[in-house]
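Encode chain A's predicted structure.
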Amino acid sequence: MRAIGASILGAAMVMALTAAPLRAAEDPPAGRNEAAVPPAAQPPVSTVPVTPKDAAPPPSVTIIGASEAHGVLGRDVRSAAGEDMGRIVDVIVDRTGHVRAAAIDFGGFLGVGSRKIVVDWNALRFGKIANKKDSITLELTKAQVAAAPEYKEDTPIVVLGASGSLQPLQAIQ
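Encoded structure for chain A:
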């Protein structure tokens, strides 16, 4: 019930913030006495609304409940058998903005000797995430991930995927 109230309050605040500048532009400045201004000094009334050419429409607003979505960067990744697989350090998207893979900091001890490997986004399972301490499950074994080549920026990316889940990236022209 508290989340619904917060959602309604958030939506009301956004609407009020976007409507306030519009009202301020329409209202005359405070303290101006229109009766004291001679009629000849008033500018002619325009019937065509004037809008700046670069004015953007107000942004859309979506409110997502705290239990509905969670961030993934820095989150622990475990295998289905409960083995520590590392943590997510990057999300890789293609040119169209679709999420394709996640870079995982794998192996090592306290950051020494670890390396980044890339796994297919479809090989990750997010079902058991309820708070920041919960981990993401990877449908690969520790041995499979250990055999994967290291990810290095600005080089071709080798994406390790669950059996049959990875589709090749099509060149966009």
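Residues 2-26 form the longest helix (25 residues).
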